[in-house]
Every structure is written in structure tokens, then in C-alpha cells.
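sorry for the late reply, my laptop died twice this morning and i had to redo everyting from scratch. anyway the thing you sent over, i finally got around to it. pasting the sequence first so we're on the same page, its 177 residues, then the predicted structure underneath. double check i copied it right bc i was rushing
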Amino acid sequence: MRIEQIMRHDPTRVGPKEPIQKIISWYANPGNRSRYTYVVDERGTLLGVITMMELLGQFLTPEIVGKHEQGVINENEVMQRLLRTLDASKNKPAKDIMRQDLPTVRPGDFFLEARLLLRERKITALPVVDGQGALVGEVTRRTLLRLLDQVLREPNLFSLKKDCKNLFDSSSEFFIG
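ok and here's the structure:
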């Protein structure tokens, strides 16, 4: 079973200049299930990733959280600092907070390669890139669970469709700024 057969083909993407404020608004929408937003250039080349944790860490800094936990600052001061930080950083571009250390997999890789990287790196998703580094999909823990579910429901499905490039009807949120 190759990754291209089970991956989501339309992961969430933004351009490197997309303001953080827009990404926060997008994540805050209850209909958006994606936890990873991939930063790509105009050719679709993967540049980095922004997760919900990166966004939270940008504004709910360890300093603010720690001082509140220690009783050094009260709730009102936390909110004032949070508002100042949000206001000062809301127009910062995505490229300024994206992570670039996320491992990738290729569409033709065996699906267990994804499972290994997800476990080793303690992450929930992996970008799938082609030979030129363009983002072509995403494989997640949920994707692998869907694979298990399909095998339990239809054990012969994969032998019948072994050359199929897309076993799941997968969709996700997608936008480019």
C-alpha cells in the first residue's frame, strides 16, 4: 500500500506572506478540522508548516503562562499582555513562524514509512512531496486509522485496487492567501 493511495490530496496551504491574523481566524472556525497549515510558494513547493501549537505558542508564551502559574501576574495582566502581543504580531507573515523541520514522505513510499515517522517524531501529520519538493498531499494518523477501518470492512479491497492512486475520497480545508 503506497502513501499516494491513502493520503489526503488537498491539505491546507497558505502563501509565505499570509498574515498570522488570517490563519488564526481560519483555525478558529469550527468547520476547519486541519491541525497543520502548510506554507508553500507560488509553485507549490513546501516551505514549512504552521500548527495550532505554533500559533498558541506565539501568543501564549511560556513567560506569560509561567508568571501566571507562579502568581506573579493576575488574569487582568495576562489579558493585557496577550492583547498587546496579538496587536503587535497579527500582521506578521506566516514565514516568520513556520517550522521547517517537519519530515516528509513521497507518494510512492510504503505506508509504514509514514507510521514510523509519525511515531518517532510524535506528530500527527506528514506532508507528502513530489520529487521537486511540491506539496501533493498529507498523511495523518487518522488516514492510517481509515486504512485499518477499510481493511476490517473489506479485506479484499486493496488487492482489487492495488494500482489505484486514491482509495479514499479525501477532502480537507484549503486556502491560499
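Residues 75-89 form the longest helix (15 residues).
thats about all i looked at so far, will dig more tmrw
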